[in-house]
Amino acid sequence: MRSFLIDTDQNTPENEAARKVIVAVHDHFCEKAGIEPWAFQLPAGKSTPATEDGFDSSDAPSRAIQLLFSGRVQGVGFRQWVRHELHRHALNGWVRNLGDGRVEAVIAGPEDALEHFLGQAMGPEAAELKSREVRDWYGRHPERVQIREAAEVPAESDEPS
């Protein structure tokens, strides 16, 4: 389990879940053995853009964007890839498939983290990204990372008046 931690990215649900399991198993075995739990240091996991570039504590202005991805982006793990990258960049957002074959995402966070996310290679290996449309998002900012149910058309965001 420790080696799993070393091989997972910090700030991801997989890393956090593994940390909780290790501590729970440690506490359980100590209780069964009738001994006091002892302190130990778990490996943090692989560095991510959020930790390397300080996005997890950035004071850059916050912004939200809507992304529309087209190409071979459904059925290839694209939404899961977006979810993982949002955690790696300490961003909040949601992602979903659209009825026309595109994938839509709304992402919010510090400007520097958004720019770094946009500069990354887009999608898992099985994906074939043909285009990526980026728009400012004026609707409600996401407060967590979520894969949503599919929708027929993209969400609307009102322009500021």
From TrEMBL:
It catalyses: an acyl phosphate + H2O = a carboxylate + phosphate + H(+). GO terms for molecular function: acylphosphatase activity. The keyword Hydrolase applies. Residues 64-149 form the Acylphosphatase-like domain. The active site is at residues 79, 97. PROSITE patterns: ACYLPHOSPHATASE_2 (PS00151), ACYLPHOSPHATASE_3 (PS51160). Keywords: Hydrolase. It comes from the Bacteria. Its EC number is 3.6.1.7. It is an enzyme of class 3 (hydrolase). Belongs to the acylphosphatase family. This is acylphosphatase. It comes from Vreelandella halophila.
